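Take just one protein record:
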Amino acid sequence: QVQLVESGGGSVQAGGSLRLSCAASGYTWRTDCMAWFRQAPGKEREGVAAIYFGSTYYADSVKGRFTVSQDNARNRLYLQMNNLKSEDTAMYYCAAWRYCSVAYWSNQHNYDYWGQGTQVTVSK
């Protein structure tokens, strides 16, 4: 049974940093996209960042501030978030897409597995 479990969310002031972690069990990625999505209240879920065979992809809104990485030996995905802004406030989700077409990484409907989410709240 595949499980993705996020951790590391919390409340910070604008300009602060957080590091999210996603632990995968029952699953090892080989030809998969691993991604972070977020969803703010009343908004659509949006792709934040993805990693595929070591190449990384970001939404324009987080470029230069967020960094996605993975530890294949430990089956973990990370999202380092720096210079956080109030508009980054959302529930953050880890997701996996098997045999992905990376050009479409930001489309949530392509993903096969999801975590339960971790809340990030940024105050001004």
Remarks:
- The mean pLDDT is 94.
- The two ends are 40 Å apart (CA to CA).
